[in-house]
Amino acid sequence: MPSWLRRFSSLRWRLALVYIALFALFAFLISLFLYNTASTLLYADDQGKLIQHTTQLKALLIDEVDCNRLPLSSVFKDIRLDVGTGDIDAVYVTDADGRVIASSNGTLLNRSLPYLPASVFPAAQNIGTPQIFHLQQTAGGPVDAALVSLQLPSTSRCANATTPAAYLVVTTSYAGESATLMRLLLLIGLVAGTLTVLGTVLVFVITGFMLKPLVHMRDAAQAIALGDLPQRRRLPHTDDEIGQLSTSIGHMIDQMERATTSYRSAEERARRFFSDASHQLRTPLTSIYGFTQLLLRGAKDDPTTLNRILRMMKNEAERMSRLVNDLLTLSRLDEGRVLRVRYADLVEIAVEAVEQAKLMATDGRAISLHLASEERLGVQADVDLLKQALVTLFDNALKYGKQGPEGWIKLVLDRRDGLVIAQVINNGDGIDAGDLPHIFDRFYRGKNLPTLEGQSVPVAGTGLGLSIALAIVQAHQGDITASSVSASNGDARETTFTITLPAAD
């Protein structure tokens, strides 16, 4: 499409052209109606006058010709016929065969009247009122003829008179009316054209004003498409459909902005996740590679050194296996793994988790289960995954809680407000306030990570356990929180992990 023609495809031009076409059609129909109405009224009025004049002439002719026995030629001279006044062009008297007996202009005498066929005269013999016939169209306009019989009525005072059958024909043209209608047509056309031009100007002004919010919306959308999201403030906020559309676009942009922020955050987390995962995997691989080099250099010949190196290689391989399994579990949960959900009693799951935790505890710590509610603690859950989440919290408490017989871990189950609550509580050094907001982050090991008693290295782990527990609980439409407060006796801190799940009756 040429550039000069492309501008006419805009919404403003299309609306304007539609409105102009409708306005012009309306003006045309109104003009046509006015012209037809005026034409009908004018011609109907002139036909009424023609019938009136014809009736009057008939009465005069009957009175003079039939009663006074005067010849028609003298009657046409004596009677004022009003010929040429605009209402009557010519007057003719014919016999029964349509031959002209007398005429107002002295023409067509003894000749057949050319305007009417001979067959119409016998039919009009017994009709007392004039009949109108439409003749040919002339340069001056249409021509009509009025035909009436000059038969003497039975009630006439000259009823005994005998006269041959005769007919009166009066013709008239509508030249004046045609000229009037032509002037009226020109006036209507001029008025319609003027109104169309004014309407066109008004249409362009009004459509420009009405589409101004759309122009602002277009400019703002173009700026937003280029990344300038704050330009949504330029969107119009009115109560009409355009305002509603701009409000919807504003909401959509807000969602886009949140989605963009979330995407960038997720991308950053994914980048950090893969970086941390690579680092975590590289460490055991590097260790295994180093141990292999030691063996190749001759350490295999020393049984004591060989056994020590093999144990360390085994530990690194197990660490790498745990890391890979944890990553696989997180990946499946992130992908929306379909849970094998069924109704389960949380008490039964908790009993199994406590028994497994007791097997994991090798330092004599007390691990117990407490029921704070006598109500049923039913949940819709994937039993294996929910048990894994509880065992993970127990493992975390075993690693970071107080060790030895002085340490303890308890699992408290309760139900409140349609929610099932499971709390894993342990005593110990607690969680540093700076680490508490980040403990569920993947690969987060803490800035103030405690060390094992008698050792200078931190507690072993991949930094994914709590992340897995959080993902499992969220997959069950639940939530998990952590807190660490000073104990009531003041000699230790109590760390509490709280799992909240929807109850199932």
Describe the secondary-structure layout.
Elements: H1 3-6, H2 11-67, H3 72-78, E1 90-94, E2 100-103, H4 120-123, E3 131-138, E4 141-149, E5 167-173, H5 175-210, H6 212-225, H7 241-296, H8 303-334, E6 342-345, H9 346-360, E7 366-371, E8 378-381, H10 383-400, E9 408-416, E10 419-428, H11 465-475, E11 479-486, E12 493-502
Parallel strand pairs: 7-9
Antiparallel strand pairs: 1-2, 1-5, 3-4, 4-5, 6-8, 9-10, 10-12, 11-12
Structural descriptors:
11 helices, Beta-Lactamase, 505 residues, 5-stranded antiparallel β-sheet, alpha+beta, 3 domains, Heat Shock Protein 90
Q: State Rg.
A: 56 Å
- For the biggest β-sheet, the strand order reads 2-1-5-4-3
- Kindly provide the name of the CATH class of the largest domain: Alpha Beta
CATH architectural grouping of the largest domain:
2-Layer Sandwich
In CATH, what is the homologous superfamily of the largest domain? PAS domain
Assess the beta-strand content as a share of residues.
15-25%
Overall pLDDT confidence:
76
Q: Give me the count of strands.
A: 12
What structural class is derived from the secondary structure elements?
alpha+beta
Number of helices: 11
| Helix and strand pattern | HHHEEHEEEHHHHEHEEHEEHEE
